[in-house]
Each structure stands twice: as C-alpha cells, then as structure tokens.
Amino acid sequence: MTEPTRPPAVGVLDQGPARPFPPGFLWGAATAAYQIEGAAAEGGRAPSIWDTFSHTQGRTIAGHTGDVACDHYHRMPDDVRLMADLGLRSYRFSVSWPRVQPGGSGAANPEGLDFYRRLVDELLGHGIEPWLTLYHWDLPQPLEDAGGWPARDTAARFADYARLVADALGDRVRYWTTLNEPWCSAFLGYGSGAHAPGRTDGADAVRAGHHLMLGHGLAVRALRAARPDAQLGITVNLYPVDPASEAPADVDAARRIDGLANRFFLDPVLRGSYPDDLRGDLAPVTDFGHVRDGDLEIISTPLDLVGINYYSRHVVAAPVEGEQPQDYWRASTCWPGSEDVRFVTRGIPVTDMDWEIDAPGLVETLERVHREYTDLPLYVTENGSAFVDAVVDGQVDDVDRLAYFDSHLRAAHAAIDSGVPLRGYFAWSLLDNFEWAWGYTKRFGMVYVDYDSQARIPKSSARWYAEVIRRNGLAAQ
Ligand code: FCB
Known about the structure:
By secondary structure, the protein is an alpha/beta fold. The chain has one domain (about 10-475): TIM Barrel (Alpha-Beta Barrel). Helix 14 (about 400-415) links the parallel strand 11 (about 380) and strand 12 (about 420-430). An eight-stranded parallel beta barrel has the order 2-3-4-5-6-8-11-12, surrounded by five helices. A three-stranded mixed sheet has the order 7-9-10, with helices on one face. A two-stranded antiparallel sheet has the order 1-15. Helix content is about 40%, strand content about 15%. The structure holds beta-D-fucopyranose.
C-alpha cells in the first residue's frame, strides 16, 4: 500500500488512546455505478431502468439524472488515488450491468468489462481490496421491457451476467456480493414506485423480491462454480422495528413491518423458508404461486458472509381509521398488505433525509442477525448520513456527519465486544453522488464533489476517518 498523505488528526481522536478494532478489520468506503460513473452513453453502455426513470418527467428532483454524475468513469485513476490518500483498505463498488452486458443477455461488451479490469488493477496497485457488488439497481432496460424482476426469467439472466463478470474479474476480486438492498429494488421499484422502474403493484413487488433472491441464489452457484476460492455474500438493508407502545395492536404493526422489511429476505436466504406470519400478512396480496419447488433451496445456497446496510430505525403504530400515510419513503404501497401501518417520529435528531439518528439500532441489528440467523462473518456494507455542506475557504467542516460516523463506529465496536463476528465497515459514501430520486440534492460523501468543476474536497469526516483507519480504532471516550 502506498503511504497516504495524512491530514492532521481532528477532534475526538485526540481525547485518548485508541479503542482498537480487531486486527485486519476491513475499513472501506462504498459507491454504486449509476450514482458516480456518468458516461451513460459511452463505451458501449446502454440504458438501464434508472436512465429511463430519471429521464422521465417528475421522477427525480429537478429532473436530475446520472448522465454525468461524478464523472468517475473518466476520473477513476484520480479517485483511486484519493482512496489511497485516505488509507482505505477496501473499496466497495458496483458493476453496471448495462455497461458490461448492454442487452441484459447475450454477448458481453469488452469495453465495459475493461473499465472494471482497469479499476480493479488500479485498486490492487494501491493495496486496496476490491469489493464487487453485481447489482446496485441498474437493470438493463431490455430486461424491464420483458417484465423486469416480477418476471422469473430475470433471475436466470442475472446468473448469466454474474458468470460473465466472474470470468472477467474472478482472478483478481476476492469479495463478491450479489444484490444491494433487494428490499429497495422490489418494494420501492415495483411497490411505491419511488424508484425505477416506478411501477406500483404490491403483488409485483412481492414477486420481484422473490425473483431477486432467486437470482441471488443462482448467481452464488454460478460464482462458486467459476471461483471456488471467492468470498460470496449479499447485502441487505435492515432496520430494528419497534412498536410505538406496548399496546398489542402496535406490537402487531411492528411484527408486520419487521416481516416485510427484514424477515422477507433474511429468512429465505439464511433459513430457506418464508416466515408463516409474513405469508399470512401477504395473503390478501398474493398466493405465493410464483414460488416453485426447489426455489428456496437455491435461494438459501450457503454463503461466506452477510453484508448489512444500516441507516436508521422504524417505529410504528397501529392504523388509525381514515388516516392515510403520506411520507415519501413510507408511502403505503412500500408495505403491501400492511399499507395502513403508521410510521411514528420520535423527535430525536435527524439527518438531511429526515432519517432519525439511532446508533444503538446498529448494535441491535448486528446482534440480531448473529443471534437469530447466522454465525457467518458480518460486514457493515453501508452506513452514513446526508447533511447540508458548506464550502468555506475551500474546506468542508462536516461536524454532523463526522459525529454520525463516530457514534456508529462506537456501536460497531460494542457489537464486536458482545461477540458479533463483524469483520469490516464501509462508509457510505466515498463521494457525494446521485442520490436516486433525490438527485444531487442530498450529500452523503466523505468527499465533497463540486458538480460544476468536478473538484473533490475531502471533508473533515474523511480526514477523521483516515485517522481511524490509521489507528485501527477510535479514541476512548
Ligand atoms: C442505500 C443505497 C445507496 C444510497 C444510500 C443512502 O439505500 O444502497 O445507494 O442511496 O442508501
């Protein structure tokens, strides 16, 4: 690894000796292809559902698209140098399916694969472990035109694509995750329609969720056959779900939302079954006729690791007669069969997304997965926060974001202390980027991006994180 140019330590790190993380803890940062690459019509890339969606009027804030984004496609070597300067041990990126297999089936696009070969070589050359996500929401448009994730065939196409990427990059990438946050793909993409492709049908969302997991299982089998030595996993977004009170109706609302948000994916992937209560809750929506014999065995194909994205907690209450949920993320159709559950805010500090800041929820989430589901190594594959940033004298002093990272890393440390096999942490995100339907209005980066000049400015949180990595730990408090 090249010696990073280290900025001075800031704030909390000066308060005492480091609280160490286990040796070899994988410190990283994450991004996703459509959010940073740009070059949407270059190098043989064809449109994905996110190109179509973002170019459709009214779908994203101010009509923002990922056409240019952070222009990472052209600036990749500089961006990798920036990662090395921060001392990152690993970088989690996603491969753009429509860049490497533009039609969603059939031949690969050599120019697309070549971009990722160069990225991986650049990372390895700087001693940074590549962590590859196969699917971060950019389904090739031709596959959506053929039915999208609600169509069973999409799962088979995904496995073919996985094989094609493994053949090109399997000799140099050790860590592979199949899907990023299948809940979002299924329930925001096909349920609420807040994400691409913007469809709104609860039964389709449930079918999409199943076929995403089927695609995951088939892809794991294809990857395992191609690269027996690879470390394979999936990334799910999890939330503790608390009832607003002890009242049985509130407790039941929490059970329902926990079923849809968490257990819908954890149970099939890690236990090989759908929970009975979830099937019951969904009975008015679907008869699960799309689940075929053998599917759950494929979906629960053994893994080497589980990736968890954590941002916040849900607190929910029983429906109130005549009241319609309105909130953007919590739009009723994200929760088929449980549309009228109310999401309650607690009045605690929130980020610029209005997501409540709840670091103890990370400990609970990690402990739960370990206790109830698996002994596998766990990784936090995303955690971070959006705040409004100001550039003052060429600097961005993002104290709120720094505090968010600090509190969540303390939570990660507490989970390790309690016996959770947590092996790594990826900050979301390396760069400010295209935040889906929010366009460029929400900044999650440790590195500020000036979208006019494409200048990168490491924020205080980035300099702080570099120190955490260098010390392999946090200051005692
Ligand atoms: C996650 C996504 C990621 C980013 C963060 C803020 O749900 O995986 O792409 O949008 O949220």
